[in-house]
Amino acid sequence: MIRTVIIEDEKPAARKLERMLSLFPDLQLVANLESVEDAVNWFSENEHPQLIFSDIVLGDGLSFDIFEKISTKAFIIYTTAFDQYTLKAFKLNSIDYLLKPIMEEDLAGAIEKFKSFIPSDQSVNSDDIKQLIKKEKSILSRILVKIGYNLKIVQTQEISCFYSENKIVYLQTQDRVYPSDFTLDELTEVLDDKKFFRVNRQFIINSDFIKNIHTSPNYKVELNFQPSEEITVSRERVKDFKDWLVN
Questions:
Q1: What is the per-residue pLDDT for 140?
Q2: Count of Cβ atoms closer than 10 Å to residue 148 Cβ
Q3: Where on the chain is 4-aspartylphosphate found, per UniProt (predicted)?
């Protein structure tokens, strides 16, 4: 049996996930935890499971706080309404990232992925996990941004570019500019590289919004929606840029 824990602060979501997991007879649910505090206490006093299903935003913090306080070799499948935490999740032993509402086929696929990582002796090595998940690339499809006291979901397909200014990374849409919590380096890891390309140290552009490309004296890109600053492709990136345009 595979010992399993759920970390979820919304009781209806926890009950639904528990019902879905009951369809997998080789999973044994040993705890259903509701907060960072509960989880830290439980992991401090009990044998760790092999598999954890965890929401990210809990009532008393982020579930990342749990695993920064408690070292575990368990595999983690995150379940959340937002995918802006993808990069950090995959740095913390995550093997999958399921967006709510969770579909049965997605859940089954995540469990099968978990099983493929478990050797025949059922042992788990966190270093091995990290090497395996480096081979996985989760594509960021939407970003949560803050506007005053409100939150807004922006689909990445609506973003013409990301750019850095005064150590803050902004995203440009048709309507307006929003600040984000990402760095450009982080974004290059999680954006769809068929759509997005980092043309220089300051800009990542979306091919769907390219209006014109000037080639002399330097490669300069015009987007349908962009900040006032010119977007120039750095010399060392020109060849990769041209290859990206036709792939």
A1: 80
A2: 5
A3: 55
Whole-Å CA distances, 230 to 163, 187, 220: 11, 21, 7
The answer to whether 7 and 66 are in contact (CB under 8 A) is yes
Chain-centroid distance, C-alpha 179: 18
By the 8 A CB rule, do 112 and 70 touch? no
Q: Is the pLDDT of residue 123 over 50?
A: no
Pairing of strands 94-99, 75-80: parallel
Give residue-wise pLDDT tens across range 150-176.
Answer: 778 899 999 999 999 998 999 999 999
Q: For position 135, what pLDDT does the model report?
A: 47
CA proximity to 231, closest of 214, 246, 245, 243: 214
Average pLDDT over residues 165-193: 91
Let me know: does 89 contact 70? Beta carbons within 8 Å: no
